Amino acid sequence: MKVVQVSSAGGDFEVVERPIPVPGIGEVLIKVHACGVCRGDAVVKQGTFPGLTYPRVPGHEVVGTIAKVGQAVSPWTVGERVGIGWHGGHCLHCGPCRRGEFGACDTVLTTGLSTDGGYAEYMIGRSEALLLVPEELEPAKAAPLLCAGNATFGGLRNCGAQAGELVAIHGLGGLGHLALQYAHRMGFRTAVLSHSQEKALLARQLGADVFIDTANADPAAELQKLGGAKVIIGTAPDAKAIAGLVGGLARHGRLIMIAFTGEVLHIPANALLYGERSIAGAVGGANIEAAIAFSQFAHIEPMIETFPLERAAEAYDAMLTSRVRFRAVLTMDQ
Ligand SMILES: [Zn+2]
Ligand SMILES: [Zn+2]
Fold it and tell me: Which of 81, 124, 38 is nearest to 329 (CA)?
């Protein structure tokens, strides 16, 4: 099989041939149809994930079909359409697992980081981490829902805003264009904060009630003119811009970070104190199948550009530099 691997921290993507792996106890072999390219994959390239070993195949937005099952995975069968996201497996035995908090497992596995991921024609998946993906969804359009869709849907579903309240989406890219559609269909009044005026029309088409051009207006002041945002979803990995948004929150408003960035947020403490505002983060958690189901019935699709597996490096660069509209997806079936 063909895989795309990284051989060392800071290394390039390499297309290599490997034998198709054999699933062990509790594992399945997945024939991968599509895998999204996510900013989270950068930690494989940069080597910033604790305990990362090389070579490693990245990719945690995987949609495929079960090709083989190992021992002790009886409920899953060959031919089922499945997906696997950031969460790659858990022990079912430690304290967090016994409380049902599998994402906090003491020996949690992360797809594409602690195990080889979906930049490959085949991959091994732990059966406890598998998700059912409806057959009628095109794999390339379903793949981004497993991380980008889950993070934005989960963040909004649990954000505490009520129907009709103002929810602002900062950034209209891979995460933001999904967050906007979800927020609109969940019944919030939506504002998009973007420095690209040319995205205003698209924002309206995807459900924005208000578009705020952050290059030409102070977003915090503009949000306050609307009464203040109950929630701001931070999807742009730009710490300086994010810090400038806190003043746009309503009383008890929350800024929820979804963008993946190691940058430091510099926020005056009293900006939180006034109005008892707060800042939180969200990764989506165990909402993936709910995100897929909501996307299906609400007719929400990611806007994608597909790349064949061999062009993973190009897809990754397009994602990192925000040239892709709006999510890059590798496809393996051509
Ligand atoms: Zn991701
Ligand atoms: Zn555990």
Answer: 38
Question: For residue 179, which amino acid is it?
Answer: A
What's the pLDDT tens digit per position in 206-247? Answer: 999 999 999 999 999 999 999 999 999 999 988 899 999 999
150: nearest Cα among 250, 270, 300, 18 = 300
Least distant ligand from the CA of 94: 2
Q: How far is the CA of 305 from the centre of ligand 2 (A)?
A: 36
Q: Is the peptide bond before 55 cis (omega within 30 degrees of 0)?
A: yes
Domain 2-146+303-331, CATH = 3.90.180.10
Ligand 2: distance of its center to the CA of 107 in Å? 6
Q: What is the CATH number of domain 149-281?
A: 3.40.50.720
What distance in Å separates the CA atoms of residue 117 and residue 32, rounded to the nearest whole number?
10
* Distance between CA atoms of residues 159 and 157, nearest Å: 6
Q: How far is the CA of 202 from the centre of ligand 2 (A)?
A: 43
Facing residues of 231 across strands?
167, 254
pTM over 0.85: yes
pLDDT tens-digit series, residues 152-163: 999 999 999 999
Structure tokens at 82: 């499945």
| Ligand 2 centre distance from Cα of residue 101 (Å) | 8
What are the start and end residues of each CATH 3.40.50.720 domain in the chain? 149-281
Q: Enumerate the CATH 3.90.180.10 domain ranges in the chain, comma separated.
A: 2-146+303-331
First to last CA, the chain: 14
- Specify whether the CB–CB gap between 284 and 153 falls below 8 A: yes
For residue 172, give both structure tokens.
């209209």
